[in-house]
Amino acid sequence: MHLDGPAGLGHAALHTTPDSSAAPQPLGDEAGLHWMTFDGRLDNRDEILHALDAPVDRAAADARLVLAAYARWGERAIERLIGDFAFALWDAPNRRLVCARDALGIRPFYYRLEDDVFWCASELQALLALEGMRARVRPNEGFLGEHVAARPVQLEETVFSGILRLPAAHLLIVEPSRARKRRYWEPAALDLSCRTDGEYAERFLDVLDRAVACRLRAPAPVGAHLSGGLDSSSVVALAASRPAADLAPPLETLSLEFPGKPYDEREYIDAMIAHAGVRAHLLRGGDLDPGLLTASADRSRDLPDAPTGEAMLQPLVDAARARGIRVILTGVGGDEWLQGSEFYYADLIRRGQWGTLVRLLRAAPAGSPVDRTLRLVLAAGVRPLLPLVARRAVRRLLGRTLVPAWIEPSFARRVGLDDRLRPPDPSPWRGSYARADVRRQLESGWEALMKEQLERGAAACGVEYRHPFYDRRLVEFALALPEEQRQRADVGKVVLRRALAGRLPDAVRRRTSKVHYSALYFEALEALGGEACFSNMAIAGLGWVRGDRVRRLYRAAAESARAGDTRYEVQMISLWAIWSVERWVRANMGHNGGAPWG
Questions:
Q1: For the CA atoms of the chain, what is the radius of gyration?
Q2: How many other C-beta atoms are found inside a 10 Å radius of the C-beta of residue 202?
Q3: How far is CA 253 from CA 65, 249, 287, 400, 494, in A?
Q4: CB neighbour class for 286 (10 Å; exposed up to 12, middle 13-18, buried from 19)
Q5: Residue 55: exposed, middle, or buried by beta-carbon count in 10 A (0-12, 13-18, 19+)?
Q6: Could you tell me whether strands 178-183 and 110-114 are parallel, antiparallel, or unpaired per DSSP bridges?
Q7: How far, rounded to the nearest angstrom, does the alpha carbon of residue 174 sit from its chain's CA centroid?
């Protein structure tokens, strides 16, 4: 800890590499003017060192580089930092606390500002452990309502009405008389000016390769999660091909197989291992442990992790730690930036590219209901092109609401749920509706939840996940791509497939199937008790949901799941969201839902 007049900083370190323990924190500069607690990693160290042009030790810890950058450029220094980080920096001469979160929101940052006191922490339970804090905060019914509806939207709110998140790419400065917050990063408007598919692929490969390379900085073993999908396989291919000096010891892959399960990808994992020639660890994924499914919520005081998180990945993490691996590369993020958007329909209709539109529609999976395809074209192709007044008139005429049938209408009205769930009206961004839809991933409530849960679960297991596809420079490049480099006919991730030609086995590079984990959600709920999970629900007692509607939804989804009908995926994710809020309420508000908070 470091105490300095009105400010106190504390740091409980997670050391995943030897160099992360080189600078004990909180860390101060030589003059003792600036002190900080820094959670994260810089990926553009060389750029910062060159720009500082000062006698800074090239081996200095990332936190020390951030201190030096702040001393040189003040709060504008944050705009130069690329990596995964969250920090609080005490500027003693100016009596202000400077807080920041990385551009993609990988590292969490929670805070509460009350009168003349400001608290912040990396996790909710740290704030709740402060004396008297539980008496000051209440459950945030509106935010929890979004999750019961399985449509999280808000980026600044949390499950507690008195505690906020600092959104991704934001800076918060707390001074004696005020607190001010601003966004410090927007994706740069790149002009790729490529003439051929090959040029796009070549430039994309360079950006992805650099994103992988900078995440290999660790004087310790580095592992990579290899699921068999295109994204994780691409990361493994590029990491394994780095010079030996970048990988000492060599990269090791970590994979899970699920024999007989619909989400097993063993054939693609084997093909990638043989092609890359890496040292591989193939582990059998077991039945989900109900204890792990509930432990994350009890530990963090936040919503439980998805079953695709800590509960599924525990064998993989255990194997990594046994090998001395504390840093694990992932393929997370590839879908968000490269898979393509349904709003491409609107772009094609607006441009009159009817041939391309017909080819896309013909490429729909065999057996897709015609009415579903028609609804998709109307929603993502025609509706965005209607004038705003017309869209609103149609919505009023049809009496459309986004509030699901299982939510009590009185609760929805009380928290203004329909307004909360209402997405912004679609409009083009940089000339494209599809590009605007991809850009919205930066403000996605689901994305924010997933990244925080993934980071929290990794920290609890004592490892660090690094995601090359969440590199800020790669995201800027991907957002500048024309949609034709994302999707054509029935093929997505066009630019990635071309870029990795020769580096991936054809079985992986050409695959168009994608594993969905809806079956895992069903298995998780079955392990927790099946339909009994939704009997005598506390949130029904609170008047938030209609218990009979929820149970009816579960029975229908379970019947579809047992019949192998993949159309139950959305219902299972909705049911998991309902169970998550139910579990949170029971853990934080008393088991009968009526016990007083605190």
A1: 24
A2: 14
A3: 31, 13, 22, 48, 25
A4: exposed
A5: exposed
A6: unpaired
A7: 27
Three-state secondary structure readout of 101-142: ECCCCCCCCEEEEECCEEEEECCHHHHHCCCCHHHHCCECHH
pLDDT of res. 2 = 94
Exposure b/e, 69-78, CB count within 10 A at least 16 = b:
bbbbeebebb
The 10 Å CB-count burial string (b at 16+, else e) for 411-422 is: bbeebebeebbe
Cα 329 to chain centroid, rounded: 15
- The 8-class DSSP code of residue 383 comes to G
CA terminus-to-terminus distance, the chain = 28
pLDDT at residue 591, rounded to an integer? 47
Say how many CA atoms lie within 13 Å of 157 toward its Cβ: 19
User: What is the C-alpha to C-alpha distance for residues 99 and 78, in angstroms, rounded to an integer?
Assistant: 10
From the list 402, 264, 254, 396, the residue with the least C-alpha distance to 324 is 254
Q: Which is it for strands 34-42 and 164-165: parallel, antiparallel or unpaired?
A: unpaired
Residues of the chain scoring pLDDT < 70: 17-22, 54-56, 58, 219, 245, 248, 365-371, 399, 590-598
> Rounded distance, CA 411 to CA 593, Å?
15
Q: What is the pTM of this model?
A: 0.93
Paired strand residues for 329: 224, 466
